[in-house]
Design a protein that fits this description.
- Belongs to the thioesterase PaaI family.
- Its EC number is 3.1.2.-.
- Pfam families: 4HBT.
- By secondary structure, the protein is an alpha+beta fold.
- The chain has one domain (17-132): Roll (Thiol Ester Dehydrase, Chain A).
- It contains three helices and six strands.
- A six-stranded antiparallel β-sheet has the order 1-2-4-5-6-3, covered by helices on one side.
- Strand 5 (107-115) and strand 6 (121-132) form a beta hairpin.
- 31% of the residues are buried.
- Residues 1-9 have low confidence and may be disordered.
Length: 140
């Protein structure tokens, strides 16, 4: 049974309380891609006044998870591995651009880039997600 565009749209939203509390907003998603944004507030900063690395990691991870769901092939997923490369300090409005590179029956491989308001790269990330459809049987 395949899902129609309305079902997929309904599922492609930022809904975890953690993400909502941190101001993550879905900008765009579809066909294995996603764009999420966040305004770095004082509560998000480290002692240097830059976005805390945990905020950056969470935004990139969430964007890649949404991109995986946006592929339309999977209903359930969990991060199996996440690698972040911090390139420069993040401040102001930051945007994570994510895409699925390849997916199979049980794993999806993604990449993402975090940009500042001027389009400069702030961080890159890659992740592997364990994936399953709702109809798949849970492991024994």
């Amino acid at each position: 049974m395949s899902r129609d565009a309305t079902d997929l749209e309904r599922e492609l939203r930022v809904e975890s309380q953690f993400c909502l509390d941190n101001g993550f907003a879905l900008v765009d998603a579809g066909d294995g891609t996603a764009v999420l944004a966040c305004d770095v507030l004082e509560r998000h900063t480290n002692r240097h006044g830059n976005a805390h690395g945990g905020l950056v990691a969470a935004l990139l991870d969430t964007a890649m998870g949404v991109a995986t769901r946006a592929s339309g092939a999977f209903d359930n997923l969990g991060t199996a591995s996440l690698t972040i490369n911090y390139l420069r300090p993040a401040r102001g409005r930051i945007t994570a651009h994510a895409r699925v590179r390849r997916s199979g029956r049980t794993l999806a491989f993604c990449e993402a880039e975090l940009l500042d308001a001027e389009g400069r790269p702030l961080a890159t990330a890659s992740a592997v997600f364990a994936v399953a459809t709702r109809s798949a049987s849970p492991p024994a």
